[in-house]
Amino acid sequence: MAVRVVSEWLSSCSGCEISILNLGDVILDLIPAKLQLVHIPALVDSKYFGPNGDGTHLTLPECEVGIISGGVRNEEQKEVALELRKKCKFLIALGTCATNGGIPAQANAWDNADVLNKVFKGSITTPPAETPTQVVPKLLDRVYALDEIPGLKVDIYLPGCPPHPDWIAAAILALLDGKTEFKLPERSVCDTCQVIREKKAAGGANIKRSLTNATFEAEEPIQKMRCLMEQGFLCLGPVTLAGCAGKEGNPRCIDARMPCRGCFGPIKKTSNPLVDMMGALTSVGINPQSVPDRRLILNRFIGAHNKLRPLPQRPGMPGPR
Ligand code: SF4
Ligand code: SF4
Ligand code: SF4
After folding, report:
1. Could you give the CA distance from residue 140 to residue 161 in angstroms, rounded to a whole number?
2. Which range is least confidently modeled, 33-37, 63-67, 94-98, 232-236?
3. What is the pLDDT of residues 123-141, one digit of tens each?
4. Could you identify which of 77, 131, 235, 286 might form a hypothetical disulfide with 281, taking C-beta atoms 3.0 to 4.6 angstroms apart as the criterion?
5. Gap between the Cα atoms of 298 and 106, Å rounded
6. Interatomic CA distance for residues 254 and 44, integer angstroms
7. Per-residue pLDDT tens for 171-183?
8. Which residue ranges form the domains of the chain, and what is each CATH number?
9. Residue 245: CB within 6 Å of ligand 3?
10. Closest listed residue to residue 11, CA positions, set 161, 159, 145
11. What is the 9 CA–ligand 1 centroid distance (Å)?
């Protein structure tokens, strides 16, 4: 019998769903005999309150595999996520928003009143407006990763912004094969990076602005480029889980001659990238204090799990930005 899959998106940008679509032939070969996508809003119009919309409770179809992208930002998303958890046997957290809060969880550094004030009244590009109170779902106090919500157990974590289709395919094929576990190998982006490393900084004691050009020859392969951190750039490769290139290949940003920004999140759930990155910078002679907005930048994709929260205003300092 075919495995039924239900996919939902919460506080997400839909990039993770595009990664599902990028499975291409892998998924087409499985549909419909081995796999059925019974509900996926990115592909088909979905009904939450019965076929005629006259149901009184939000419902999702029963399935073997549930996939959720996006973190949980409001009451409606929480209800959808808990409903899918009830209806599926295995739940996959797809993408760094679902596993660690992702970019939306940068907002966790401020409280809701400050965020709403900034968005509806303090934006320089939009005329001030009242904060909407009708129709829109109630915000939770912050952005939550899926596994922070009581009752929302996650079976498989597939981080990445977005995750590489290779890993989505590998996880689905593992489940089809009767396995109940799947995990990305625990290694860092640096472990898969093929640049030249000399273990000392060439770029001076302070971090360089990311708009500064790195030194490389465009025609030369990546193996001829000096490590970007050693060149003085903030490259989060040492503290970021590898996997963005799929099962093999050079990390995607490094291939584009750009530093890693940490989109796959920490190598282990228990790691603290902020502290570990300070150590990595020091080890090549770069002053960690020279990284601007360290708390936000080094937690850029992982603001859930209380990694980012509003700080009390300090006497004599300006209010929240
Ligand atoms: S992890 Fe990235 S691609 Fe996926 S929903 Fe979040 S922002 Fe979009
Ligand atoms: S710090 Fe960046 S450029 Fe250097 S080895 Fe690690 S991932 Fe590659
Ligand atoms: S290099 Fe880093 S930021 Fe870029 S795609 Fe890979 S993990 Fe994400």
Report:
1. 23
2. 33-37
3. 888 899 999 989 999 999 9
4. 286
5. 11
6. 36
7. 999 999 999 899 9
8. 3-176 (3.40.50.700), 186-308 (no CATH)
9. no
10. 145
11. 10
CA of 248 to the centre of ligand 1 (A): 22
At which residue do the structure tokens 């300090």 appear?
314
175 lines ligand 2 (CB under 6 A): no
Sequence-separated (6 or more) residues with CB below 8 Å from residue 14: 42, 69
Tell me: the pLDDT tens digits for 39-56? 999 888 888 898 888 899
User: Which ligand 3 atom is nearest residue 263's CA?
Assistant: 8
Rounded to two decimals, the pTM is: 0.94
- 227 within ligand 2 shell (Cβ under 6 A): yes
On whether the CB atoms of residues 143 and 223 are closer than 8 A, the answer is: no
Nearest ligand, measured from the Cα of 105: 1
Tell me how far apart the alpha carbons of residues 8 and 43 are, in angstroms, rounded to a whole number. 11
The encoded tokens of residue 52 equal 């005629």
Residue with tokens 């290139």: 245
Partners of 88 in beta bridges? 63
Please give the pLDDT value at position 164.
95
What are the structure tokens assigned to 184, written together?
């990305």
Cβ burial of 13 (10 Å; 0-12, 13-18, 19+) is middle
